[in-house]
Amino acid sequence: MQPVHSTFGLTIEARSPEIMQVAHRHSEIELNLVETGGLTYSFGGSHISIGAGARAAFWGAMPHQLIDVAPQTRFTCITLPLAWFLRWNLPTAFTRRMMEGHPIISAEPSALDTLLFRRWAEDMGAAPDRFQSIILLELEAWFRRAALTAYPRTVFSASVADAAEKMAQYIAANYAEPITVADIARAASLHPNYAMQVFRRAYQATMLDYLTQHRVAHAQRLLVLTDASVASIALDVGFGSQSRFYEAFTRICGQPPGAFRSAYR
After folding, report:
1. Most buried among 4, 139, 180, 245, by the most CB within 10 A?
2. E strand residue ranges, 100-220
């Protein structure tokens, strides 16, 4: 089973989060603010903890899973269409870091952000058609301020000992190379057959499915941000042939690479 792929558009919800049984992915930029409690995500093979008052922004195309929720947790979750985010022409380093799959986190509480996120959720719940343009302007301002202040930094937990996460980390670091199941298993010092069982139990996906998800996600980034040919991108992200790239990309994204590029650019 592959990480579930969804499309949300612009959404803003203030709610109590729930643990996710499987990893998922989506095309939007996701922005979370934790008001109370705390969350832990499994993201690219690492555990990322977000405490009360923290804000986290990341590109949802990378498989991620909410694996732990502290008691009494409340958060605001925002999904923002990728095309709108890219249209803002934010500082290149900030955008590149986001599109390379690095969550951008600030742990310092901000009373102003808490009030702002609450207002966005209330406005979207009351009259989305009336408030959407205002919310988008305020979101753009929020991201511009984030890009100029303390947000361009990523907080990961210390290296984890879990074998499945070691293998996921290896995939994230080497997806563009012609790696095999044996290579991935070796990263966790496991026999390939046993490693496949461990990985599937942890991520509800085979190693090769997870690897393909990573390659397609990075292909999406290159299709939007560069003028490289589809054939060149297929090779750059690790596909051995253009036909295999077209098949995998269309299956996961619901449209071929050229159509995806046209839609988002």
Report:
1. 245
2. 104-106
